[in-house]
Amino acid sequence: MPNKIMSINAGSSSLKFQLFEMPEEKLLVKGLFERLGGNDEAIFGYSTDSAKESTQLSISSHKEAVDFLLKFLIDKNILETLEELKGVGHRVAHGGEEFPKSCVIGIQEEQGIDKLCQLAPLHNPVNLVGIRAFKKALPDTPQVAVFDTSFHQTMPAKNYVYPIPYTYYEEEGIRKYGFHGTSHQFVAQEATKELGEKLTDLKIVSCHLGNGASICAIKNGQSFDTSMGFTPLAGLMMGTRCGDIDPSILTYLMKNKKMDADALEAMMNQQSGFLGVSGASNDSRDILKRASEGDTQSQLALDIFTNRVKTTIGAYAAEMGGIDVLIFTAGIGENAEKVREMCCSELDFLGIKLDAERNKSGDLFIQQDGKPVYVMVIPTNEELKIAQDTFELAK
Ligand code: ADP
Question: Which domains does the chain have, with CATH numbers?
Answer without folding.
Answer: 3-147 (3.30.420.40), 196-382 (3.30.420.40)
